[in-house]
Amino acid sequence: MKIGIFTDSFKPYTSGVVTSICTFREELENLGHQIYIFAPSYPGYSENEYGVYRYYSVPSPTNPDYTLAIPIFPGMNSLLKRLDLDIIHVHSPFTMGRVGLHYARRYDTPIVFTYHTLYDQYVHYVPVAQDLARDVTIKYSKNFCNQCDHIVVPSREVESILTELNIKTPRSVIPTGVPIEKFNQGDRQWLREHYDIPEKNRILLFVGRLTKEKNLDFLLDAFKEIHRQTPDTSLVITAQGPMEGELKQHALRLGLDLKQDVIFTGALPFDTLVNVYYSADLFVFSSVTETQGLVLIEAMAAGIPVVAVRAYGVQDMVDDGVNGYLTPCSIPEFSQAVCKLLEDDKTYQKFSRNALLKADSLSSHNMARKLEELYLQLDIRNGRRRLRMKDLIGWFGS
After folding, report:
1. CA angle 154-25-165, nearest 5°?
2. CB 173: neighbour CB atoms within 10 A?
3. What share of the chain is helix, strand, coil (3-state, %, to 5)?
4. Of 126 and 337, more confident
């Protein structure tokens, strides 16, 4: 099949959406499908990837790492006629999602939308009238969903939210899988070899964008308490984002050292990130706005148990008391769960084994097979629809 991906974010930007697109793209190409990606350009970034088409873009006023596509692409009609796409899959209801919807309707192509983000929970980026912005965002997202042929959601919690919004479009729960084969082995000493982490310290790890919605002030506050109870611990934060400087200052105000207590590594390439996961003892996650939390499964693929705040998306990934602990957004309860797991080796080993099993059940190959099945069903139905229209035209013409 020929599949067109329309997205508002793509490499070199790093996010769960970008990871999802790249992971599914690789697996679907391995299954024999042709993938074409339509995405914003980024200043100073060049690539030599076949099948990637870049729209002119401008920097986002709220996030300097992010760009906003200008929905004009000279020759797009001719390009899409030549590509003759079987499916259009959009990953945002905004600029590039609208572009994808436009061409899906023009060429009578089935359109799938992955509902990656709880968009109404990001209105803190709007400087004024946030309640109004939240209502408008919900209505806009609902309208977009009802214009699509099928919606993919990464968790059952998100599916239930769409049900509450009375969205009529059929839905499938298909999380982004993890390329298990890339986690077969890793260097368990990588972090200690590259940073000033004492050998005796247990390493807590967070991976994700350094943005407000990740609730990282809470994580630092909780780590202060964890460090008080269990001094031989270090927190490693692997990511980049607009809040990095602010979070470093917050750690210093808490009396935490930025070399041995809290270590900010910045963004790292995926091969290195595998070693970071293997170097850690526990994955800690404080976000309350996730639709899936792909990094949770990546951590489990390295055999790392998880302690996370109970939130949408996270509950589908972490089985409380099986491969980790889920807690309320409470510093005492979160820190207590971390310390309990670090001190109980028997439970820790059981959770570690169960984490590997959970990750294996969500392998990227298995998830890509589910998405492929959905595409094929939509393509078959669309073929029948086109055939019926052709017969109808022929009947009226006779």
Report:
1. 25
2. 14
3. 45, 15, 35
4. 337
Q: How far apart are CA 350 and CA 355, in angstroms?
A: 9
List the domains of the chain with CATH numbers: 2-177+364-397 (3.40.50.2000), 181-361 (3.40.50.2000)
State the pTM of this model.
0.80
Q: Give residue-wise pLDDT tens across range 313-354.
A: 788 899 999 999 999 999 999 999 999 999 999 999 999 999
Contact 298, 192 (CB under 8 A): no
Q: At what angle do helices 216-229 and 331-343 cross, to 10 degrees?
A: 50
Token pair of 315, please?
């509950």
Cross-strand pairs, 283: 205, 306
Two tokens, residue 110: 């089935």
Residue 198's SS3 state is: coil
Who's near 334: CB < 8 A, 6+ residues apart? 218, 222, 286, 307, 309, 327, 328
pLDDT tens digits for 141-173?
Answer: 999 999 999 999 988 888 988 999 899 999 999
Judged on CB neighbours under 10 Å (0-12, 13-18, 19+), 186 is buried
Rg of the chain taking only CA atoms, in angstroms: 22
Residue pair 356/384 in contact by the 8 Å Cβ criterion: no
Task: Report the run of H or E that residue 392 belongs to, with start and end.
Answer: helix 364-397
